[in-house]
Amino acid sequence: xxxxxxxxxxxxxxxxxxxxxxxxxxxxxxxxxxxxxxxxxxxxxxxxxxxxxxxxxxxxxxxxxxxxxxxxxxxxxxxxxxxxxxxx
Length: 88
Hints:
mainly alpha, 88% helix
């Protein structure tokens, strides 16, 4: 991956619409994962594993962000390709 592509990736990953959407997805998916993975601890009134709680939110955020940015980059590549084809 070229340096300019990496910079574009990070710029897009920090873009407000992508961040907001990824946060929403991570809240829903992370909550479901925490209920599934640690629900028995919550129901028993026991302590939960904080590291797992945090990871259950971080991982969906990162997956959602990466997916959104890669989709946008691929779409931009396709548009560039189509422009080149029509200009030839």
